[in-house]
Amino acid sequence: MCGIVGYVGPKNVSEVLIGGLERLEYRGYDSAGVALMPHSKEDVLIKRCVGRVSALKDALKSVTGDFAQGIAHTRWATHGVPSEVNAHPHKAGRTFLVHNGIIENYLEIKEELQRQGQEFESQTDTEVFAHLIENIRYKLLAGRDFESLSLPEKISNVLESLKIGTQKVEGHYAILVMVAGLEGHLFGVQAGAPLVAGKLTDSLYIGSDLQALLPHLSDMHFLPAKTIFAGQINHLDFYDFDLKKKEIPMSRIDWSPDKIAKGGFDHFMLKEIFEQPSVVADTLSGRLPTEELGFLWDDLEKHKDLWKNVDRLHFVACGTAYYAALTAKYFFEKWARIPVEVDLASEFRYRNPVFTQNTVVGVVSQSGETADTLAALRLALDEKVKTFAVCNVPGSSISREANVNYQTKAGPEIGVASTKAFSTQLAILSALAQDVARMRGTLVNWQNEAESLARVPLLLEQVLTQSKTYLDMGASLERFKTILVVGRGLMYPISLEGALKIKEISYRHAEGYAAGELKHGPIALIDSSTCAIVLNPKDDVSAKTLSNLQEIKARSGWIIGLGVEKHDAFRKECNEYLALPEADWALSPMLYVVPLQLMAYGLAKQLGCDIDKPRNLAKSVTVE
Ligand code: F6R
After folding, report:
1. Is the CB of 618 under 6 A from ligand 1?
2. Same domain, 436 and 487
3. Residue minimizing CA distance to atom 10 of ligand 1
4. Which of 327, 393, 418, 426 for mutating ligand 1's site (highest number of atoms within 8 Å of CB)?
5. Per the domain annotation, does 624 fall within a domain?
6. CATH number reported for the structural domain that contains residue 553 in this entry
7. Are residues 520 and 590 in the same domain?
8. Which long-range CB contacts under 8 A does 373-378 form with residues at least 24 apart?
9. Minimum-distance ligand 1 atom for the alpha carbon of 417
């Protein structure tokens, strides 16, 4: 949560920073700010605004000056309401600081600093961190004037203060620091929240995500946890928390900058829904078996070692990624005959899970930085359990730390509501389940299943030709107080995902339910103000779903059916019917989620909601 950008170089500093913040705005958008350091010895200028980055951009129009560098931040409030005074950057003496994450012991540190006479203007943990660093830095000077120090002495003064500061602070965070009187330099700490750094011969770029850097450079350093850095134009030094130098390799990112533009669509979410055929194809490409070769994974040896002797699979994830894992449970159990548990990461990490000797833990995450999912992965790694990740963002913490990473190729997902990442997660998890089943000898016709999976991009294209119908149907949901999405089997996790999409972007009350569970409580919600979207792809539980539909109908619920063209028994019971292409059992989740995404979008648009930036949300949840 929150976005960080830093820049040193010859370009227009505020333009670079604002451009970076705009690309990171999906991480948080309740206030934003910049600190700009002039080339002259004039004071560093701070501008902060409540609201979107666009408000900050407007405020900066009146700012003139020749700036050498700056740091910037877009906030998702944790400590302190969204207000100008709580917005970052925070200033303490010479220290200017922006921060992501949480300082758990900030009150303790604040009280200690207050006892020494320090006053605070905000309610944030960030301001406390800024004062802590400044306090330490000042004491380390032992009466000497900072300006009189040589350049290496100045750098060492700042680095030492960061070292001591990080020893005092508890929590998972990242900070970016600029020090007045040290033009051309930026410093920072990665202590559990992401930081990415890159340089060119005339510039230095820092960001909390690769999107901040993407239009400027494609070679970047993804800082691992427990890293302090000192950067300047064309030079970056990395240290551990004892200030011992360390090397961090550079990663090449092949995400093209046009992927982070809306490309003519009204919203990123809509663009990303339409990208699904191509990103699913990219994710499967080169991995599905040919006649001569089996499934091809990036590191085949590690892949084989991971699944050798597996007797239990434990998936852990949050939100949409959790629903992808829940869907994968059906694939793994049916094909590979492995017992599968699926946990929400925020529960798993605190409940002392039981692992067998051959348990495999799989975490699913678009961002690769979700705090609870990362903590769950680390818990499994600490227990010496074999782990894998299904992760989208290259270089992210989860993709680096898992024993094996199966990368989805959704490209940058900017819309806060996850769409294309979900489809690619389903595609890769399906292929993986087939391959594990092949290795275990539990799926004889794995080639047929793989061939069927290869048809998904084409089928998705077909589904998207009906997009206007789904969007209009979504807009028509405006008249209902409650929207239920129900299905059985593979359609159960898809109903949960469909309901999540509706509630997060349209703020309408929606619930996903296993169709057979309705009568155990939620059926009490149903009256004529309820719409039930029934997912029923004519599979082996179809007849059961039809009985549940009758229960809804008998209570005056309005029924929208999603099923195949030729399914009269279903169609005739629905008030409205949306036909989808016929497809094999395992493909239905990827096809049926698309109309739900579009209906959620259509409803949110009808209600005038801010679709790419829903209230109270941030894309990457890097706090617990
Ligand atoms: C919903 C959504 C969230 C994320 C969840 C996990 O549309 O985007 O529910 O799926 O926060 O995020 P990742 O996948 O980045 O771990």
Report:
1. no
2. no
3. 320
4. 418
5. no
6. 3.40.50.10490
7. yes
8. 373/316, 373/317, 373/318, 373/321, 373/345, 373/398, 374/398, 374/401, 375/345, 375/349, 375/624, 376/316, 376/343, 376/345, 376/348, 376/349, 377/316, 377/401, 377/402
9. 7
